[in-house]
């Protein structure tokens, strides 16, 4: 599809990539798969299915890998950020592009995201918008196109030049809150965020990567760390004390009853919050360099 390239960040995503890429092909959207050092053959699989593949030697995290992919999608006017467990439904790409034409002052567009149970996902609030008058997160899903305070990072369409002018996703974040942070910066730049009701995408939620030992603890570490990081970034109250107290008690109780899953979950949150308090970066935790991955020549 002229002017639009899908960027799909994969990490051990071989189980879901075929359906994702097949849906993009049906929509005539060329796909660029950024492979975050998968060990399950995701990169070779994507190439065999006709996608262009950018292979990263290390898992750079969600945001940094997307930054590399969107930079590489040089001829595209728009980039469609797609999780590998997302399947665009017929007409979704056309509906997103039509919305971009109808709302030229908007900066970010997202389809109606449908979860595996048929529920329509819509984000009613965010940590990064304390000024919004919906403190309880009451859910009132739109019934048509609507401006939204935040959009899910599972599937987003953004004008490439705007994305790059804002620095892309914050490269200090390995995982979690990078989409909220991007939405906040686009809104602060005076651009609307638009929910496009006529564009539909099915989301597998949590199926982007194959299960692995330690994944839950690692995920919770980054969730806690990123919450602290973005709170400091926007001058919000430091959440680490509350996270340490709440999750520390739960981790201790899980350890006392020998419940490994609870220990990994809550212990990971404690470790991430403690690292944030001590000034350790998410990149250091992952053994990554502060500089983003090498930019490749635009597509």
TrEMBL record:
<dbReference type="InterPro" id="IPR029044">
    <property type="entry name" value="Nucleotide-diphossugar_trans"/>
</dbReference>
<feature type="domain" description="Glycosyltransferase 2-like">
    <location>
        <begin position="7"/>
        <end position="163"/>
    </location>
</feature>
<dbReference type="InterPro" id="IPR001173">
    <property type="entry name" value="Glyco_trans_2-like"/>
</dbReference>
<protein>
    <submittedName>
        <fullName>Glycosyl transferase</fullName>
    </submittedName>
</protein>
<dbReference type="GO" id="GO:0016740">
    <property type="term" value="F:transferase activity"/>
</dbReference>
<keyword id="KW-0808">Transferase</keyword>
<dbReference type="Pfam" id="PF00535">
    <property type="entry name" value="Glycos_transf_2"/>
</dbReference>
């Amino acid at each position: 599809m002229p002017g639009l390239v899908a960027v799909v960040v994969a990490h051990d995503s071989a189980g879901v990539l075929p359906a994702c890429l097949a849906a993009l092909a049906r929509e005539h959207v060329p796909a660029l798969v950024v492979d975050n050092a998968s060990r399950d053959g995701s990169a070779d699989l994507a190439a065999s299915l006709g996608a262009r593949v950018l292979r990263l030697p290390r898992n750079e995290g969600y945001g940094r890998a997307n930054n590399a992919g969107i930079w590489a999608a040089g001829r595209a006017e728009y980039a469609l950020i797609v999780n590998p467990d997302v399947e665009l439904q017929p007409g979704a790409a056309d509906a997103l592009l039509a919305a971009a034409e109808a709302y030229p002052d908007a900066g970010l567009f997202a389809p109606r995201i449908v979860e595996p149970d048929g529920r329509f996902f819509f984000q009613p609030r965010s940590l990064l918008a304390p000024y919004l008058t919906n403190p309880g997160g009451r859910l009132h899903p739109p019934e048509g196109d609507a401006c939204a305070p935040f959009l899910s990072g599972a599937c987003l369409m953004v004008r490439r030049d705007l994305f790059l002018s804002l620095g892309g996703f914050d490269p200090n974040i390995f995982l979690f809150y990078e989409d909220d942070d991007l939405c906040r910066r686009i809104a602060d730049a005076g651009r609307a965020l638009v929910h496009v009701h006529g564009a539909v995408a099915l989301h597998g939620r949590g199926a982007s990567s194959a299960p692995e030992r330690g994944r839950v603890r690692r995920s919770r570490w980054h969730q806690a760390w990123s919450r602290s990081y973005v709170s400091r970034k926007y001058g919000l109250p430091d959440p680490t004390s509350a996270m340490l107290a709440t999750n520390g008690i739960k981790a201790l109780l899980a350890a006392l009853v020998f419940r490994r899953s609870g220990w990994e979950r809550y212990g990971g949150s404690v470790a991430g919050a403690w690292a944030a308090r001590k000034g350790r970066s998410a990149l250091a935790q992952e053994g990554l360099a502060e500089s983003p991955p090498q930019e490749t020549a635009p597509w």
